[in-house]
Every structure is written in C-alpha cells, then in structure tokens.
Write a structure and sequence with these properties.
The complex is a heterodimer of chains A (336) and B (234).
Chain A lengths: L3 H8 L3 E2 L5 H6 L11 H4 L1 H14 L3 E3 L7 H4 L8 H19 L4 E6 L14 H17 L4 E7 L2 H14 L3 E5 L13 H9 L7 E6 L3 H13 L6 E5 L4 E4 L2 E4 L3 H14 L1 E6 L5 H13 L8 H8 L25
Parallel strand pairs in A: 1-10, 2-3, 3-4, 4-5, 5-6, 6-7, 7-10
Antiparallel strand pairs in A: 8-9
Helix pairs in contact in A: 4-6, 4-12, 6-7, 7-8, 9-10, 10-11, 10-13, 11-12
Chain B lengths: L14 H13 L3 H13 L4 H21 L5 H25 L5 E7 L7 H12 L2 E5 L6 H11 L3 E5 L7 H12 L7 E5 L5 H6 L4 E2 L3 H21 L1
Parallel strand pairs in B: 1-2, 1-3, 3-4, 4-5
Helix pairs in contact in B: 1-2, 1-3, 2-3, 2-4, 3-4, 4-5, 5-9
Classes of the chains: A alpha/beta (336), B alpha/beta (234).
Chain lengths: 336, 234
C-alpha cells in the first residue's frame, strides 16, 4: 500500500501542487473552446512547457493535461475514440518532465467530470461513468502517472464512479470537488458530506479536498469544514488565484502572488497538506507560495474572520455545515 | 408534518388553495400533481395564460429564489423544472391557440467545447415560463451556429452559457464576430455560467451577466422593455 504519494506525505508535512492548466495554455495560443487534450499530440512542446513552469517553481507534484480527456467530453471535438492515445500522451509528457527534474516530482493524472448528469436526475448511468473513467485511468497509468487526480467534481455519484474506476485500474487516487454554490457543490454537497462520502468508499483516495470554486476565502472555509470533521486523510487545497478579468483581450485572474502566498500559509494552518492553485495560478504565484510555506512555521488553526480579513470576503454567509443549516429536501412526501 | 399521510384531493381545493398547492408541488418536483392541477384549473374555466403565470411561473419563482439563496441546489431545481414541464406540456399548445402575450424572443445555447447545459436549460425553462419564446440551440455551438440562429429566428436576445474556464472566452469570440459583421447592436446579449462575473461579462461586450435563472428572467424583461421604449422614441 505504499504508493509514491503516500510515501512523500509520510516524509513531509506539506506538498506543493501546481497551478493553472487551461489559462496557461490559452496564453500559449490555445483557441477558445478548443480541447486542451488535443495538444498532447499536436503540440507536445507547449504541454511540456506548461509542466516545466511549476516544476521549476518548486511544485512537488503536477497534474497532466487530461482534465477533459474522458469520452463524453472529447466527443464534443470528435475525439471520443482517442481517449487512450491522448491520455497516455498526457502522462508520458508529464513523466518525462518529472524524471528530468530529478527531485522526484510526482505526476498526477488529471480526470475532470464527464459533464453529464447522472441517473436518476440525468441520463448517465453509473456503469457508463465508471467505464469512461476507467478507460481514461488505464491510459494515464500506462503513460506513467504516479497517481490519478479526480477534480472539479460536484455530484457524489460521479465521485464514486471515479473511485471505482481507480480501483479497477489498480491505481492510487486523489479526489477534489468544486464548492462553488453557496459553500457547497452545485449538487448541494457540503464539506462534511465529502468527508463522510470519502470514508465510505471501498477504494478511498490517498488525499481529498477542494479545488477551483469561487475564491481563496471560500476554499479555506471548505478546508476548515473538512478538518472539523476530524478527517484523517490528508486534505487538498487547490484554489483559484482570484477571479477572472479580461485584460488586453486575454484572461487574467486578479489574485496576486502575495495573496496566494498568504493563502498557502493559511491553507496549511487550516489543515491542508497538499496545497496548490487552480485557474489563474502561474509559476510566479507558486514560487511565492513555496517560499512562504518554507519561511513560516505552521500556526494555529485560523478563525474564519482571520481568513476573510486577509484573503477577502466569502461569497455566501453559510456553507451548509452550520448546526441549524437548512437542508435541501422535499418538504413533504407524496401527499396523495 | 402531522398530516403527512393525509391525502389531499386536488379537485376538492378552492382555486386559491389549489394554486398554492401547485406552488408546493412544483417546489417538491411532483410532475403528475402539477399536470393534474393544470387540468383542473382548465376545467374550471381558467385562461391558459393565467394558469401559466399564477400557478407555474409564480411557483418556479419561489424555487428560483431558494436556489439563489443556497436553500435548494441543482438536483431539487431539476426536479422542479421537470414538474413544470408536466404543466407546460398541456399549456403550450393552448397558449399558442389563444395568442397569449409574448414578452420577447431568445436564442440560447452553450458555447463550443462546453457540454454543460443545466444552467442553460433552467434559464430556457424559466424564460419560457415568463412568456418568452425560447429557441434552444443546445450545447457545443461554434460561432456559425449562433449567427445562423440569429439570422433564422430574429430574436430580441442572444443568451450564451459556459461552465468552464476553458470555454468562457469563446463567448467573446462570438460577440467579437457579431461586432465584425455589424450585428452586435441588433441584439441584447446575456451571458451566464459558474466561472463568470459581472465585470467579465461587461469586458467581453455582453449587455449583462446573469448569475442564475431567476436573475436572467428579470434581466431579460428589463432589457426588452428598454429596447421597446427606445424603438418607440425613435
């Protein structure tokens, strides 16, 4: 049971993950609406440059360029039959960049949501979801990924399907959800719900947590919520560098490297052990985050007021973990 | 909660109680009950347009507010929208026959590379409920699809949705192309989606960013009213 990520976590208090993939590739010329995964074969040098940024900035692990690499998402680009090829290429490029560095940087095979709604609300069956994730997981494994990295999930059913796919592929995995709707995922999952969900899985993740979302303060509230459940598994914090703005025709996120450095230190104090960025996080942000984590000692778990004073306001007053939180539930059963 | 097991016979309720019960049934996502309520009101001589606004739209407005306020989430809203469909299925042909007032027309679609249509579907449904004619061009639309739909449908409003960081810039591509072709000012352009914000919406040249379906309805109504006023003033 000693996978490379678990060994690293045993040896270190915290690990620095990477930053943005999509926004970085845009700046290299990826067209709006185009599939980043196609670049693993069409422009491998750009994908390599994407990974070299965080590796040079001191990241201990980075995510492959395979977020939208499942059949359901690739179908939009007529590439649903290229799942194995594109994901394998993604992992191989990552493996090569990591190995050349020589620090033992880990390659995490990114797996994003299918974009479909699962049964009974939608049409995607659990079986088909597992099949799609499994296909992607095997290709990432075969290309040399150390660990699978399931991210930006909002539905518990989809999280479970990804866990099952990782089990079938015989791979360790990490899983994060995006808590972007009043402190919950858009499907209503709270931070506490995710802890409970993770604990019940037959093939639980090595680490779990939150990514993307709507700002650094919100993300750390989610981490605090997970820590408050007494989560024993390492917690992941991968928040966006602020909010997107359009500057001279290209997208910039407004979070400064200093703000992200502050966020990284606070994330560690909140209980996160794998800390990184998401959309808008550049190597410059990562460098400052690494320096801040190395230069400071871990502190006491911060109060929410400390977090908002340093990182900005929350997007919602509550996040569903309050004792008297309203539960989204049917008010009555069938009455007739 | 005490009367949880007591049966409510919809046909025995007064008009006022029935409409209130239909709001509850919409909120609870009970499709068959909503359809039955629509049929009862029709049998009692209600105008289709009045059923639409007082029973269905008013009910969905409550759902919209609770979604906005973080009390309901997507699963509950999808069930409510599905229940609304049960009622709309009956009312739509009748509304067309009776020439119910139209608020305006909207073409709506998710941009190229983006598969997500939850938010878009909710907006389409809520706008339809609010009396707009909505033409839904689906997901993964390249700019050509939007331009063809504008040409064909001549709507008042173009609505675009994107849920991904990698697809939201495509909204700008569509708007830039409209500007190039001299079409931009002919339409109201509304955008929505999780990674967006108001400032971003304005920066890419949209008329407004709508954070959720309830806001989209209010914004669409306000812009269409303003457009009509401008036309009247010319």
């Amino acid at each position: 049971m000693t996978d490379a990520l678990s060994r690293r976590l045993d040896a270190r208090d915290w690990l620095l993950a990477d930053g943005a993939t999509g926004t970085t590739l845009f700046n290299m010329g990826l067209g709006p609406g185009d599939a980043p995964e196609l670049w693993n074969v069409a422009h491998p040098a750009h994908v390599r440059a994407l990974h070299e940024g965080p590796v040079a900035a001191g990241s201990d692990l980075f995510l492959t360029n395979s977020f939208g690499g499942n059949a359901s998402r690739l179908r939009l680009h007529g590439a649903q039959l290229r799942v194995a090829e594109l994901n394998r290429a993604a992992a191989e490029i990552g493996r090569d960049v990591a190995d050349r560095d020589g620090r033992g940087v880990l390659v995490a095979g990114s797996m994003g949501p299918t974009g479909d709604i699962m049964e009974p609300l939608g049409s995607l069956t659990a079986g088909l979801a597992v099949e799609m994730f499994h296909e992607q997981a095997e290709a990432l494994r075969d290309g040399g990924a150390d660990v699978l990295w399931v991210e930006t999930i909002s539905a518990p059913e989809e999280f479970r399907a990804a866990a099952e796919a990782a089990r079938l592929a015989g791979m360790p995995w990490c899983g994060t959800m995006s808590f972007d709707t009043a402190g919950r995922t858009m499907m209503g999952v709270t931070s506490a719900d995710l802890v409970a969900l993770t604990d019940r899985l037959a093939h639980p993740p090595v680490a779990f947590g939150a990514n993307c979302g709507v700002g650094a303060s919100d993300l750390l509230r989610t981490v605090l919520g997970m820590a408050a459940q007494g989560a024993e598994r390492p917690i992941i914090a991968k928040g966006n560098a602020g909010v997107p703005k359009l500057v001279d025709g290209s997208i910039r996120y407004d979070g400064t490297p200093d703000l992200m450095a502050d966020y990284a230190v606070l994330a560690r104090d909140c209980g996160a052990r794998i800390i990184g960025g998401c959309c808008g996080t550049t190597p410059e942000h990562l460098r400052r985050m690494r320096a801040a984590l190395e230069e400071t000692s871990p502190g006491a778990r911060p109060k929410l007021e400390t977090i908002t004073a340093r990182l900005g306001a929350l997007s919602s007053a509550a996040d569903g973990t309050e004792p008297d939180a309203p539960r989204p539930e049917r008010r009555r059963g069938r009455r007739r | 909660m005490a009367d949880q097991d007591d049966d409510i016979i919809l046909a025995e309720l007064s008009d006022e109680d029935l409409v209130r019960q239909m709001h509850d049934d919409l909120y609870d996502g009970l499709k068959e009950e909503v359809a039955e309520g629509v049929n009862i009101l029709l049998a009692r001589g209600w105008q289709p347009y009045d059923i639409l606004t007082e029973a269905l739209v008013a009910g969905m407005t409550i759902v919209g507010y609770d979604f906005r306020d973080g009390i309901l989430f997507v699963p509950e809203v999808l069930l409510a929208a599905n229940a609304m469909k049960g009622g709309m299925f009956i009312l739509k042909p009748l509304l067309a026959e009776t020439g119910a007032p139209k608020q305006g027309k909207m073409v709506i679609g998710t941009v190229k590379g983006d598969i997500h249509d939850i938010g878009k579907n909710l907006v389409a449904m809520m706008l339809e409920g609010a009396g707009f004619e909505v033409v839904d061009i689906g997901i993964n639309n390249p700019v050509e699809n939007y331009l063809a739909a504008l040409e064909r449908e001549k709507p008042d409003i173009l609505g675009m949705s994107a849920l991904l960081t990698t697809t939201m810039p495509y909204m700008k591509t569509v708007i830039d192309t409209m500007v190039e072709k001299g079409l931009r000012d002919d339409y109201i352009v509304l955008v929505g989606g999780a990674p967006l914000n108001e400032e971003f919406g304005r920066a890419i040249g949209a008329d407004a960013y709508c954070r959720d379906a309830a806001v989209a309805v209010e914004t669409a109504k306000a812009f269409v009213a303003r457009k009509h006023n401008q036309l009247a003033a010319v």
